[in-house]
Amino acid sequence: MGSSKYLDGLTSEEYKNLTENLWKIQNHKCFICCEEIDLDLHPTNIDHIKPLVNGGKDDETNFALAHENCNKSKQDADLEVARAMARLSKILKAAEDKHETPSLKHVLAENGGSQFDFSYKVEDGKLVYAFSQIGDNTIRTAEIFTDTLSNEQTAFIQVPLQYLYHDEIINPRGINSSIGLLIKEFHKGNPQLHISLARLDSNKIKIFDGQHKAVAQIMLGTRKLLVRLFIDTDVDRMIETNTTAGSKLKQIAFDKSIVRQLHDTLYAERIKKYQQDHDLSENDFSFSETNLVDHFKGERGNIRTYIINSQKNLITKNADNKLQSYINFEGRGSELPLSYSTFEKTLLSRFINAKTILTTPLDYRADEGLNPRILEKEQLIQLCNILAEELLIGRFSTEIGTYRIENKVTEGKDKDISDDHLTAYRIFKEEIMYNWVQYIERLINNFFSLTGELYDDQNLFQIKFPDQLWTNIRSFVRNLRDLPLWKDRTMASTIFGGKQVYDYWYTAFKTGKTPDGTIILSKPINVVDMIK
Ligand SMILES: [Zn+2]
């Protein structure tokens, strides 16, 4: 197709002969889709394999035959790249038809990969191995290196696809069509700079990092991949390392931390779909939450829910969140002071506004550390950590737990229950926490209103908190903790005896007295006093 002086110069008879010749050379297959061509049924085109603009020759050595429709819908001007992309699209589609997330796993399966266990032994600090199942009995050795700090043992080896597996545990993400850029890059002859990482798991070599680069090279015909093989590594540690590398440390130029949510595939999948629908690369986050909501209009409220839930999930399940180990995710249980439902109702829902869908790009000011969603996440984690540090760590004993605490106090069976433990237990009761969290909101508002600047009081944690504000919050939590009522054991059968309504404690904090007139505080709670 296009302008070929050579083809234009052919008579129709010569053109027909060339078509038949190419058809025979290509074993009756289309160069792009690799499916059969029936010359009676299928309209065809002769095209340059390497485009003339890229220096391809205008002669028979550079011609290929393709279905006319394949050639029209090809994804790249270079037919070898177009073929790699067409084959990949087919693999991705087959996986999607089976309702699976397309990944390296499917690409390996389609290319004869993932068949055999790795035969190896460790001798004199070397990895000794062979690939006998594919007819290669050569005994190979590779030096085993030990990391100075982590003590991880690794070797660098080249592995045939038959021995490679995709690591679905450490890397559950799929691949997407933006891989086309990598295919083009490798097709140019440029090398892979960052090596793929793999680990040994029950004698299987599993790739957990470098999935996209592996796929791109396999689609271009690579049958062996060079990997750094972790020989005896701990999966949990690797998951943690891999996650941190992608988010905080940005060691892996792959995901921005905003979508680094292994837990939240629903939101992540919509982001991926949006990028695909708009021909954006997987690293392109130049669109906003509002764009996403508009794009997936048919799904009505869902996208909003995914955005908010993923944010809540990122905070709650974050490895840096010290409060996490005090949250009971199972529902009933009597060891931990805070149920997830309480945590969600009193803190997350108060500070993460379910109505807020941002109009700024997902990566807005991320480089400066001022991205609103990242700030919201990190600052809420910081608040959780203050609560954990001031109220729980070294204070609340999970051995004593929460079971019948007030009864034990009433019955005098409370010798092993410390004041700190009792305080923590009481402070995290839902109806109590719901009310003191409001004071934190109040003190943040006070702080920002005194700056004299406009600020978004509906999304407080999306604004960067100065150090002084953090100091104020910590002081408030300490002063709250040190109020005498929490360790007053005479209140076990009365004030703390049963579950009260939210308003009961609202009145108590506001007036110092319970609604029935019992004085429980020397004076009403006032945030200005409580930050001193
Ligand atoms: Zn075709």
Overview of this protein structure:
The strands form four sheets. Strands 6-7-11-9-10-8 form a six-stranded mixed sheet. The model is unreliable at 248-263 (pLDDT under 50). The protein has helices spanning 5-8, 12-25, 68-72, 79-97, 104-110, 180-187, 211-219, 235-246, 265-277, 289-295, 302-316, 340-351, 372-392, 405-410, 419-427, 430-451, 467-481, 502-511, 527-530, and strands at 44-48, 63-67, 119-123, 126-131, 136-143, 145-146, 153-160, 164-166, 196-201, 204-209, 224-230, 327-328, 338-339. It is built from 19 helices and 13 strands. The chain folds into three domains: 5-74, His-Me finger endonuclease fold (3-Layer(aba) Sandwich), CATH 3.40.1800; 111-250, Conserved hypothetical protein from pyrococcus furiosus pfu- 392566-001, ParB domain, CATH 3.90.1530.10; 258-530, no CATH class. It is α/β, with parallel strands linked by helices and 532 residues long. The longest helix has 22 residues, at 430-451. Helix 4 runs antiparallel to helix 6 (180-187), helix 11 (302-316) crosses helix 13 (372-392) and helix 16 crosses helix 18. The radius of gyration is 31 Å and the shape is elongated. Zinc ion is lined by residues 30, 32-33, 35, 66-67, 70.
Structural class by secondary-structure content = alpha/beta
Which shape, going by the Cα principal axes? Answer: elongated
Number of strand elements: 13
Let me know the largest β-sheet. Answer: 6 strands, mixed
How many H/I helical runs?
19
Number of domains: 3
Q: Distance between the terminal alpha carbons, to the nearest Å?
A: 79 Å
Question: pLDDT average, as an integer?
Answer: 89
Largest sheet, spatial ordering of strands: 6-7-11-9-10-8
Radius of gyration: 31 Å
